[in-house]
Amino acid sequence: MMILITMAKVELMRLRQLKTAYIIPLVLSTMDIGPNKLHESLKLPYLCPGVYILMQKAVVINTCHIV
Predict the structure, then answer these.
(1) CA-wise closest residue to 28 among 3, 4, 2, 63
(2) Structural domain of 55
(3) Cα 42 vs. chain centroid, distance in angstroms?
């Protein structure tokens, strides 16, 4: 798993010509169940404080289907 993450990081840095990149594996649910350290991990790359809520909304919207 770590090898794939490292390969993805190297490829991202090469494509975007970045000096550094952060790869944060995420598992989101609609019930606010997630890793305990997720909020700390999202602070590391200096993301917007509300990014977790936006990602959670995207999960809800992508799992809804009109029947």
Answers:
(1) 63
(2) 25-67
(3) 8
Query: Can you tell me whether residue 14 is helix, strand or coil?
Result: helix
> Highest mean pLDDT: which of 4-13, 40-49, 56-65?
4-13
Rounded distance, CA 28 to CA 52, Å?
9
Task: Give buried/exposed letters for 31-50 (b at 16+ CB in 10 A, else e).
Answer: eeeeeeebeeebeeeeeeee
pLDDT number for residue 5: 80
Query: What number is the average pLDDT over the span 38-51?
Result: 71
Residue 45, domain member (yes or no):
yes
